[in-house]
Amino acid sequence: MSCCRCREGERAAQSSILYSILNRGSPCQRTQPRTAAAQLCACASNRRLVAIRAPQLVFRAASEVLVKTFRFVKNVPCFQDLPAEDQLRLVRKSWAPLLVLGMVQDSVDFDTVETQQPSLLHRILTHSKERQQSTQTEIQDPGVPVGDVEGIKMFLVKCRGLGISVKEYAFLKGAILFTPEVTELECREYIHALQREAERALYEHVRTVHVGNTGRLSRLRAVLNKLRSVDPDSVAGLFFRPVTGTSSIDEHVLAMFYEL
């Protein structure tokens, strides 16, 4: 299924550039618009890829944030009491949203550039050797969909505008860390209770400190929901993979966790 509500069937096929080339002179082509841009799918921007402008610098900053976050996690008594396998599963599940939240707290920002990739038509029409070289380049650093990156950047800006306090950050991290939806948890019910406790503590803190500010809790809940929808592959592809290459991001993250 297409990623957007594009037209299907004969009309969609006839509007493509490749169809136009292969069917040049066909009678049906006279009814088609001459402007190729007018036929672009609305989801074309979602296929654009971007990469970090200064990957080494941002990689170092993101790694420092993650190390600081893991120190916080390891100092949570309830986390220490969990079986080692449950700790491992929770870290694997939560490292990406915890990193994004830590970047908000530490005011880490980044700039991106659009990656230069040949179009599908270019890869079809150019020499096979060039296509192989292009494919190798894409595997090394394909970039991240621009929509995912814009979502992360927008999230950072909105969160900083909330003026989240140190205690609120701690409660948010707890609610993200203790995720009972992780498969094969040995202490699932206990972890679920810890998540509820972190959310309740956040609610009590907001109710006590921000008296009359009824909208703040809903905004912080929206932050939680957004963090829970963070795509680990996009985060890894943006901040780590340009430096670590094709090595396992899980191994890299867990190595940082166990080295502390």
Automatic annotation (TrEMBL):
Taxonomic placement: Eukaryota, Metazoa, Chordata, Craniata, Vertebrata
Single annotated GO MF: DNA binding
NR LBD domain sequence ranges: 10-260
UniProt source species: Seriola lalandi dorsalis
InterPro entries to which the protein is assigned, alphabetical: NHR-like_dom_sf, NR0B1/2, Nucl_hrmn_rcpt_lig-bd, Nuclear_hrmn_rcpt
Keywords on record: Cytoplasm, DNA-binding, Metal-binding, Nucleus, Receptor, Repressor, Transcription, Transcription regulation, Zinc, Zinc-finger
Family, similarity comment: Belongs to the nuclear hormone receptor family. NR0 subfamily.
Record-linked Pfam families: Hormone_recep
GO terms (BP aspect): negative regulation of transcription by RNA polymerase II
Entry keyword Kinase: no
Example of a GO cellular component annotation carried by this entry: nucleus
SMART domains named among the record's database cross-references: HOLI
The name this protein goes by in its record: Nuclear receptor subfamily 0, group B, member 1
PANTHER family, per the entry: NUCLEAR RECEPTOR SUBFAMILY 0 GROUP B, NUCLEAR RECEPTOR SUBFAMILY 0 GROUP B MEMBER 1
Keyword Membrane on entry: no
Transmembrane segments: none
Protein location: Cytoplasm; Nucleus
Predominant subcellular localization, coarse grouping: cytoplasm
Coiled-coil blocks: none
